[in-house]
Structures are given as C-alpha cells and as structure tokens.
Amino acid sequence: MTMTEMDDDDAALAGEYAIGLLEGAEAAGARVRLREDPRFAAAVADWRERLVQLDADTAEVAPPARVYAAIERRLFGGAGPVGAGSGQGAAGRAAGGLWRWLAGLGTAAALAVAVFVVVLPSSGTPPTLLANLASEDGALALRVGVLEDFSAMHVILDAGDAPEGRVLQLWAIAEGQAPVSLGVVESRDYFLPDYPRDLVEQGITLAVSEEPPGGSPTGQPTGAVLAAGTLEDV
C-alpha cells in the first residue's frame, strides 16, 4: 500500500503523524488507526522510510499540501503569508526563504529537516549536520542532528524501542578509534548539550546498541549494534 492508493486526507494525516505534527485527540486517533488499519499503518511506514532515506537518488514525491500547511502553522504561528485566491499549494506560499531552501533538497531530506525545525522552540536553530540511523528491517529508526550553533545534538527516536529489559545507547565512532558513548537514549525526543564537539563532525558514524539498564558497564558497546548512520551536511 502506498500513499498514492489512499485518498488525500488519509495520506496527509499519515504524513502529519509520521513527522510529529499531530497533538491531542488527533494524535490519539491516529495511533488507534495505526494499530487497526493496515492501510494507514503502511502509509505511515512509507512516510517514515522517506524520512530516513536521505539518499540523493530517492525519487521526489510532493507531500500533500496539508502537511506543508501544518508545518507553516507551527513555524510561523499562523496560516503563513497566503495570497488570497492564488490557488497555489502551501509550499509555494511559505514565508521567507525557508521553503525555497528546503525545495533545494530532496523531498525526504526536506521533511527530515522540517521536523527538526518544527520541534525546536521558536528561538531554536535548525540542524547543520544530520544522521539517519535505521535497522535493516526498518523497525528501529532514529534521527540525530547537530544544531547549527553546535549548542546541542537533537535526538529523535522515530520508530521502535529497546528489547525488553534493555536500553538503547548512542555511540560516535571516528575512523580508527574506539566508540565514544553519547549516552543512553533518554526519550523519544530530547536535546544533548553535553557531547564531544571535537569528535562529532561530518562523516562520523553514529550507532545504536542495546545495553543493560543504565548503559554499557564497560564504556564500550557490549550488546548488539541495532542501527547506524553517518552525519552529513544538511
């Protein structure tokens, strides 16, 4: 099942859920559909796959206009500068140069950056480096960004969790060096201001392992490595 096989409203709702725009009753309703509606669950999975695949060869698929409109509302505190009667999609009406900048990226990359911007406070900054970590089967997916001012890393756990009785631990791995712990994954969305700035740079590998409660007792991965990705310029 793909988004093109769903009606526009359902496809848009799946996109909004996947990038974290839904709140309250809407989010609760989407979670129920995720459990009970295989078509909706497949559409959400399709969106998540697009978000974690930042390959330049990924075919562009224009997100439904409602998704862009919702992002605009969260970014600009209103409907955005919409020209009355213009008939243009929300992406074409976005304020300032943000959407022109995002339009220069692939669709998946643009949405991945957009969700980082959406979840930041209004005074926050977008990521300058971004890594997508995913397991081979896609059951576990994380995004890790380094903010433009390097004040913190932003960790978002999009899908999956640690095995029962275990925790997820994040690692930075420079070529030829031992892994350096970035700590246990604290929640599904958090900032990490205390990180090794001299180590975290473009091209470094980030990985997630499953460890005993409290994290690795040795300072090195002791459990299975579940997902990995590379920090790249946004």
UniProtKB/TrEMBL annotation:
Keyword Transmembrane helix: yes
Domain of life: Bacteria
Chain ranges passing through the membrane: 98-120
Biased composition annotated in UniProt, kind: Low complexity: 210-223
GO biological process, one term: regulation of translation
Residue intervals of the Anti-sigma K factor RskA C-terminal domain: 107-225
Xref: InterPro entries: Anti-sigma-K/W_factor, RskA_C
GO cellular component term, pick one: plasma membrane
Molecular function per GO: sigma factor antagonist activity
The UniProt record lists the keyword Phosphoprotein: no
Region feature (Disordered): 210-234
Keywords, alphabetical: Membrane, Transmembrane, Transmembrane helix
PANTHER family documented for this protein: ANTI-SIGMA-K FACTOR RSKA
Protein name: Anti-sigma-K factor RskA
